[in-house]
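Consider the tokenized backbone below.
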């Protein structure tokens, strides 16, 4: 009997030690399976875009030699040509009709001294204006010979003032010109369209000249975000040149 009791006591001790060993393993750390894949994270930019993705934004102004190519590709704003940025109003017959994005200068429409002599050639008529002489003289001559060759000679018709019927004067042939009331209404229909994007250093007025005469031939129409149909004869109005650029 004593031997049987000793045998049973020994068996109970072995069982207890085995149970303690299993409990100690349950509380320990385990090694991940060799075939487990570490979790990966995606690095994002502040905008939430995966850093492996890149986004290309068209620059505000292109390299000058790319002007024709960009117009052909459909770009209509910020076209750099001759050192100025231009807006494409329309493309017709292999040419692009461009308007300067900004007011590029202050200039009188008509010479103040000539204005005092009362004959037609001193009135605010585009064909006789000092603004036309400036745009097709000093302003045009600042372009390189290659750039000048790209600018088309345009038969410029100046319609009468649509409200007062003031005569627009004779047709002209120009490379650079101011828009007419009709052209502004056609290509710049909204107030936001009419406003110049900005003004270059030294330009002091927000109103820019059109070639259309005002209520009389002693004034010319100007634009801010509206068309001032009565016209004005300020000494120094703003200038936003227009031209037709050959795309061939």
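A designed sequence for it:
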């Amino acid at each position: 009997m004593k031997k049987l009791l000793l045998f049973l006591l020994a068996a109970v001790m072995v069982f207890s030690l085995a149970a303690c060993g299993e409990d100690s393993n349950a509380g320990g750390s385990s090694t991940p399976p060799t075939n487990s894949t570490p979790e990966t994270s995606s690095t994002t930019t502040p905008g939430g875009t995966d850093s492996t993705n890149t986004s290309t934004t068209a620059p505000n102004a292109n390299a000058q030699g790319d002007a024709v190519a960009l117009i052909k590709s459909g770009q209509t704003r910020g076209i750099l040509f001759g050192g100025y940025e231009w807006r494409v109003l329309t493309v017709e017959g292999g040419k692009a009709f461009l308007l300067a994005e900004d007011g590029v200068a202050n200039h009188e429409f008509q010479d103040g001294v000539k204005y005092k002599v009362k004959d037609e050639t001193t009135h605010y008529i585009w064909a006789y204006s000092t603004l036309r002489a400036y745009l097709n003289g000093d302003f045009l001559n600042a372009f390189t010979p290659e750039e000048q060759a790209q600018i088309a000679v345009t038969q410029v018709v100046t319609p009468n003032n649509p409200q007062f019927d003031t005569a627009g004067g004779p047709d002209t042939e120009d490379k650079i010109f101011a828009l007419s009331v009709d052209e502004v209404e056609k290509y710049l229909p909204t107030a936001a369209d009419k406003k110049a994007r900005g003004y270059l250093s030294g330009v002091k007025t927000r109103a820019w000249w059109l070639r259309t005469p005002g209520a009389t031939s002693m004034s010319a129409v100007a634009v801010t975000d509206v068309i001032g149909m009565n016209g004005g004869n300020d000494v120094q109005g703003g200038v936003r040149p227009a031209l037709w650029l050959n795309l061939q």
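The chain has six helices and eleven strands.
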